[in-house]
């Protein structure tokens, strides 16, 4: 999908010419050590690249322009080792288009009590230099992340990595293409939205493709390729005899394999990063794609059902943000509830399309009728998902802005078998509790479709929303409903004032 180490954060250290050559040599040497130290930390998933220190408006403008144009540069980290008068930064910050992290650090961790003198004081000035820079970024109303602490501190490095991953997800969206087979599910509101505004704000495009064109690609897949993929299924998943060659349902498996090969080819040929489909528009397709979608998601494609392009795009960005972390991020739907007051929880699933990367054991390939859409019985992978900390995230179009809603949840192992449920499923308890979590989600306008993530935290998604410049509301262990509702009201006023 993407190798995060190929992505670069540029480490830009501000200073000024006032200090003289000797001091500036020291600044440069220290900055290089800090940049290399962060780059070499096992906590950091991207590359951190030292840039020559900047000492004037011209050097700042030049460096930030280069960052804008550099293909692999996903953002910049700034640090003012010394004082860097911030009017020098105006021109550069005005044109900066890449995400910005302000690292408020210092070369030395401790005060050298016995030796500290005015030379030391004049070199190690970030305590005031970074405040001057911070004022200007605030004054210019620029989005940025501020991380505070010594650069070798593990917590600081962790915070930098969270933001770096958000910047990587954002980078992945720029110029990304998402394909829609069919329109939105008829009359559904929350999955719809303004695709023009989304492209303007988020950088990805969503366009429609005729299902017939996809069917033409599927029909061109050779029988030999289909047979080969069916064998992969047989090796990879549990299958009853009726699904294997000679069995009565084997034809359904072959059809599903053919759909997967065709979809994969269509997406590869068009350089798409994700897609959506809808069961209301499957003309020429024999089944609603089930296992095909489940396996494509596991390979990194964004997807959401019923034409939900916003969730498909968010699934994709979340997969990029979570590369290399334990667990995955997946398309999910709040399906049905267990309202036992002592043990309330949500059962999450979808008609078919639950990401195969969520499986906690070898999935079972099954063929069952689908009570909707009027197509042939589709093949799908059925499995359970591990418990643990997780979250749900939903991107909604509020008309004047996009809002990202995040709810931290505790996933739990199924307390009982679900022998008759023919789809993969997850169980979770919303934080802070079922009633508050669900009420807050509904007040915020969160969708039934979500990105369910086992590996991302609210910090990743908050950083991502900040980079995107959109509203983000978190529902978690400390959420109080009255305060949360007030926050929504205040945000409403803020975004009304902000919109032009
Ligand atoms: Mn759905």
Nutshell version of this structure?
The protein is α/β, with parallel strands linked by helices and 500 residues long. The chain is 38% helix and 21% strand.
Commentary on this structure:
- It is built from 15 helices and 19 strands.
- It has 500 residues and is an alpha/beta fold.
- Helix 6 (154-173) crosses helix 14 (458-468), helix 8 crosses helix 10 (250-269) and helix 13 (434-444) runs parallel beside helix 15.
- 48% of the residues are buried.
- Helix 1 (21-40) links the parallel strand 1 and strand 2 (47-50).
- The mean pLDDT is 96.
- The strands form 4 sheets. The chain has a 6-stranded antiparallel barrel with strand order 11-12-17-16-15-18. The protein has a 5-stranded parallel β-sheet with strand order 2-1-3-4-5, with helices on both faces.
- It has helices at 21-40, 57-69, 90-95, 118-123, 126-139, 154-173, 195-202, 211-219, 223-236, 250-269, 291-298, 309-321, 434-444, 458-468, 481-498, and strands at residues 8-13, 47-50, 73-79, 100-104, 145-148, 177-181, 205-209, 238-239, 274-276, 302-304, 329-338, 345-349, 364-367, 379-382, 388-397, 402-412, 425-430, 449-453, 471-475.
- It binds manganese (II) ion.
- Manganese (II) ion is lined by residues 305-306, 333, 350, 449.
Number of helices: 15
By DSSP, the count of extended strands is 19
Quote the distance from N terminus to C terminus.
Answer: 37 Å
Overall geometry comes to: elongated
Major sheet strand order: 11-12-17-16-15-18
Largest sheet: 6 strands, antiparallel, barrel
Mean pLDDT: 96
Strand content: 15-25%
Rg computed from alpha carbons, rounded to a whole number of angstroms? 25 Å
């Amino acid at each position: 999908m993407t190798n995060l180490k190929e992505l670069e954060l540029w480490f830009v250290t501000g200073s000024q010419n006032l200090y003289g050559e000797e001091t500036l040599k020291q600044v440069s040497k220290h900055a290089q050590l800090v940049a290399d130290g962060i780059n070499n930390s096992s906590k950091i998933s991207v590359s951190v690249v030292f840039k020559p220190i900047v000492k004037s408006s011209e050097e700042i403008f030049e460096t930030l322009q280069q960052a804008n144009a550099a293909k692999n540069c996903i953002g910049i980290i700034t640090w003012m080792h010394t004082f860097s008068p911030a009017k020098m930064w105006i021109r550069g910050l005005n044109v900066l288009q890449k995400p910005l992290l302000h690292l408020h650090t210092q070369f030395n961790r401790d005060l050298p009590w016995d030796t500290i003198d005015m030379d030391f004081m004049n070199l190690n000035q970030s305590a005031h230099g970074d405040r001057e820079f911070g004022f200007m970024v605030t004054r210019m109303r620029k989005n940025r992340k501020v991380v505070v602490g010594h650069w070798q501190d593990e917590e600081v490095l962790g915070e930098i990595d969270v933001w770096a991953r958000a910047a990587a997800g954002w980078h992945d969206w720029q110029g990304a293409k998402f394909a829609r087979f069919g329109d939105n599910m008829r009359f559904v509101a929350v999955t719809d939205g303004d695709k023009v505004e989304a492209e303007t704000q988020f950088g990805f495009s969503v366009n429609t493709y005729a299902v017939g064109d996809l069917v033409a690609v599927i029909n061109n897949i050779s029988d030999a390729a289909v047979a080969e993929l069916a064998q992969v299924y047989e090796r990879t998943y549990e299958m009853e005899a009726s699904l294997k060659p000679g069995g009565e349902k084997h034809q359904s498996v072959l059809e599903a394999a053919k759909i997967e090969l065709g979809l994969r080819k269509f997406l590869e040929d068009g350089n798409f990063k994700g897609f959506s489909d809808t069961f209301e528009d499957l003309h020429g397709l024999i089944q609603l794609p089930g296992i095909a979608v489940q396996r494509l998601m596991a390979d990194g494609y964004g997807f959401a059902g019923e034409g939900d392009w916003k969730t498909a795009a968010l699934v994709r960005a979340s997969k990029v943000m979570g590369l290399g972390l334990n667990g995955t991020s997946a398309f999910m739907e709040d399906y049905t509830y267990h309202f036992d007051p002592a043990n309330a929880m949500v059962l999450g699933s979808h008609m078919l399309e639950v990401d195969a990367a969520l499986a906690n054991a070898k999935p079972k390939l099954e063929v069952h009728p689908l009570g909707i859409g009027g197509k042939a019985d589709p093949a799908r992978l059925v499995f359970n998902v591990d418990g643990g900390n997780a979250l749900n995230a939903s991107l909604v179009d509020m008309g004047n802005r996009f809002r990202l809603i995040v709810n931290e949840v505790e996933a739990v192992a199924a307390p009982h078998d679900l022998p008759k449920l023919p789809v993969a499923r997850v169980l979770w308890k919303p934080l802070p509790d079922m009633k508050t979590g669900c009420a807050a989600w509904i007040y915020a306008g969160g969708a039934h479709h979500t990105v369910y993530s086992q590996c991302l935290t609210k910090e990743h998604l908050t950083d991502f929303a900040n980079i995107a410049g959109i509203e983000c509301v978190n529902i978690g262990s400390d959420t109080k409903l009255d305060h949360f509702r007030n926050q929504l009201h205040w945000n409403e006023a803020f975004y009304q004032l902000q919109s032009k």
